[in-house]
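TOKENISE THE FOLD
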Amino acid sequence: MSKQLNEGLEYKSMEGMLKPTLHIDEFASKMGDDDDICVVSFYISDEEAAKDLVSWFEKGYDFVMDADRSPGEIDPNKYLVYIELKRRTSLLDNMETVLDDLTTLTEYVPEDWMCKYGKEEFPYSQRTVKKYVPLSPKVYRSMKDDELNKMRTVAGVDIPENKNVAQDVRDFVNLSTNR
């Protein structure tokens, strides 16, 4: 049974409603390219609470580019709330701020949260997020290129020549062209 939230969010008003898992990049960004924007989503068990949480994210954080919720239930008593954040190294601090603030609404502290990125699931910490989640557009594109090249290799398709250039050579070329 879920609580009815009538007057916005109050201290611990979402206890038992929010699943303590951050789903990172599970959905495509509406605000821009996926290499530039990270989508972090949460599952919540009450439609009104989902609406309130979206409003809380939009009004409370200047670093949240967009917040929204699923138009209906994903599963019975399961709604999606997502936020879009710039894919920068500040993403770590921004996620930490959100989780710290969620302690006022839920029974969870940041150490209680799990993260899901692709097939990986891991306990939340800035260290583990940094290990699995690309924190810049360049790293995101590089990871996607590496995945594509692995598929090309398995399929017996040649990898384009510019993808075969050693990383240190690509870095040197990038430095020399940024003058």
In short: Residues 3 and 128 are 33 Å apart (CA to CA). The helical segments are 47-60, 90-102, 126-132, 137-155, 161-164, 167-177.
